[in-house]
Structures are given as structure tokens and as C-alpha cells.
């Protein structure tokens, strides 16, 4: 029986920026294959710094980061960046080609995929996010929610190990929010979601990690963490007025 390494393994990760600001103070985090985990915490907690270490945008810290058993480092950077797909908060940071099809094809084509294999990869990625009928449309003609789904498709086309989402529900109307949630639930991929939208985290991620002042302050079932009023208050996490996380029936 072969041992499958976790999608993500972070050990003792500490990082200081060149100006001396210490953003992480020894983070340990393991995320198993197929898990959906919410990364919560106040502004300035170190969430972005942690995420940027996952695909080698930031390096030079103390500690180790491995993706599916592969150490994150300069030697395997191209493969790491294929395995860790980051969907930015603003889809316009990711969409820059004349058509949706070309945007989704860009990553795999750059990695060397050609011909029918490339067409199949693009079609499959667009199908998974419900945007197959929009392949020939210019991205700037789409709604914000549609552009976010295309941004997800550009990452899925790389067949990543981990899908990292930065505030995926921000600026979405209720219908788009629901459509994206349904898509994310359907994906057979590990998801790490950075969000301030605590009901969305509860809906989509059975597990949550609270990062605060550069350390992990809590790691457990999302519902239990959100019901812990002392924990929430201590780390400046606020639920919407009237929202009771204990009343939500949790799925998987």
C-alpha cells in the first residue's frame, strides 16, 4: 500500500520581510488530499504571507513547505506553480486574453500542451465551472461573477493539487455566490479558502484554521470555532448580525 503525502505540509514556517516586519512566527499546517479548509484571521494576521509561500512567490523564510510531497523551492518552481493554483480576489488580475477560451488555454499552452489535448483540457475546465457556452466571449463582456468562474477555470486547466481562493465570495451577488459555492463543492481538489466571509467558510469548509499575529491560534471544525465567542472576539472575527453558526446543519 503506497502512502499518499498530504496536499500541503507546512513545518515551522517563519518569515520576516526585508523591512524587518515579522509576518509568520513558526506555522505548522497539514492539509489532506481533498480537504476544504478555510483560512481565517484579521487583517495583518499573515494569511497572504502564508499563501505566497505555497507556490514560491515568497521564499527565504525559515521552515519547510511541501506540496504533495514536493518541497517548495527554486528547483521545482514550475511544477509547484502548476500544483498550487491561486485564484485572486479580482478576476481581472488573471484574465488578459481576447477570449475566455484563450485565457483558460494560456497556462496549459505555456506548459507545452498542444492540439486536441489542449482543447480537451480547456473544454473540461470551462464545463466544470459552467462557462462552456462562453468560450468565445471576451472576458470583459462577462459579469463579475462569470469572470470569477472563468478565473477558477484558468487554474483548474492546470490540474492543480491545491486550489487557493482569495476572498472568493467578495463582490458577488447572492445568485453568483450560490453558483460558485456549488462549483467549489463539486470539485475533486484540495481547497484552501482565505476569507472574511464566515458564513461562506462555514458553508463550504468543514475545517477552519485561525491565523493571528503570525501563528495558528486555532484549528478545528469550522462550526465549533465560529461558535467559540471568546476565540472570535480575541481574533477580531465577526459574524453577521443575527447569524447563528450553531443553527446551520453541516454537510461535507
UniProtKB/TrEMBL annotation:
<keyword id="KW-1003">Cell membrane</keyword>
<dbReference type="GO" id="GO:0005524">
    <property type="term" value="F:ATP binding"/>
</dbReference>
<dbReference type="InterPro" id="IPR003439">
    <property type="entry name" value="ABC_transporter-like_ATP-bd"/>
</dbReference>
<keyword id="KW-0067">ATP-binding</keyword>
<dbReference type="InterPro" id="IPR005876">
    <property type="entry name" value="Co_trans_ATP-bd"/>
</dbReference>
<comment type="similarity">
    <text>Belongs to the ABC transporter superfamily.</text>
</comment>
<protein>
    <recommendedName>
        <fullName>ABC transporter ATP-binding protein</fullName>
    </recommendedName>
</protein>
<dbReference type="InterPro" id="IPR017871">
    <property type="entry name" value="ABC_transporter-like_CS"/>
</dbReference>
<dbReference type="InterPro" id="IPR003593">
    <property type="entry name" value="AAA+_ATPase"/>
</dbReference>
<dbReference type="Pfam" id="PF00005">
    <property type="entry name" value="ABC_tran"/>
</dbReference>
<comment type="function">
    <text>Part of an ABC transporter complex. Responsible for energy coupling to the transport system.</text>
</comment>
<feature type="domain" description="ABC transporter">
    <location>
        <begin position="8"/>
        <end position="238"/>
    </location>
</feature>
<comment type="function">
    <text>Probably part of an ABC transporter complex. Responsible for energy coupling to the transport system.</text>
</comment>
<keyword id="KW-1278">Translocase</keyword>
<keyword id="KW-0813">Transport</keyword>
<dbReference type="InterPro" id="IPR050095">
    <property type="entry name" value="ECF_ABC_transporter_ATP-bd"/>
</dbReference>
<keyword id="KW-0472">Membrane</keyword>
<keyword id="KW-0547">Nucleotide-binding</keyword>
<dbReference type="InterPro" id="IPR027417">
    <property type="entry name" value="P-loop_NTPase"/>
</dbReference>
<dbReference type="InterPro" id="IPR015856">
    <property type="entry name" value="ABC_transpr_CbiO/EcfA_su"/>
</dbReference>
Amino acid at each position: 500500500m503506497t502512502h499518499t503525502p498530504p496536499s500541503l505540509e507546512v513545518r515551522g514556517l517563519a518569515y520576516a520581510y526585508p523591512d524587518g516586519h515579522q509576518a509568520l512566527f513558526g506555522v505548522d499546517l497539514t492539509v489532506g488530499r481533498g480537504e476544504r479548509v478555510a483560512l481565517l484571521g484579521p487583517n495583518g494576521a499573515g494569511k497572504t504571507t502564508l499563501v505566497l509561500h505555497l507556490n514560491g512567490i515568497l521564499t527565504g523564510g525559515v521552515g519547510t513547505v511541501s506540496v504533495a510531497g514536493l518541497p517548495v523551492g527554486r528547483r521545482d518552481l514550475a511544477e509547484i506553480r502548476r500544483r498550487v493554483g491561486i485564484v485572486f480576489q479580482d478576476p481581472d488580475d488573471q484574465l488578459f486574453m481576447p477570449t475566455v477560451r484563450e485565457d483558460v488555454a494560456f497556462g496549459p499552452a505555456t506548459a507545452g500542451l498542444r492540439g486536441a489535448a489542449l482543447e480537451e483540457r480547456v473544454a473540461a475546465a470551462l464545463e466544470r465551472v459552467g462557462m462552456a457556452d462562453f468560450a468565445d466571449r471576451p472576458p470583459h463582456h462577462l459579469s463579475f461573477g462569470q469572470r470569477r468562474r472563468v478565473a477558477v477555470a484558468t487554474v483548474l486547466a492546470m490540474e492543480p493539487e491545491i486550489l487557493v481562493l482569495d476572498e472568493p465570495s467578495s463582490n458577488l451577488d447572492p445568485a453568483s455566490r450560490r453558483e460558485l459555492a456549488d462549483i467549489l463543492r463539486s470539485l475533486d481538489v484540495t481547497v484552501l479558502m482565505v476569507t472574511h466571509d464566515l458564513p461562506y467558510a462555514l458553508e463550504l469548509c468543514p475545517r477552519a484554521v485561525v491565523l493571528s499575529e503570525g501563528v495558528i491560534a486555532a484549528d478545528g471544525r469550522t462550526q465549533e470555532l465560529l461558535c467559540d465567542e471568546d476565540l472570535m472576539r480575541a481574533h477580531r472575527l465577526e459574524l453577521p448580525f443575527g447569524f447563528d453558526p450553531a443553527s446551520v446543519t453541516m454537510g461535507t
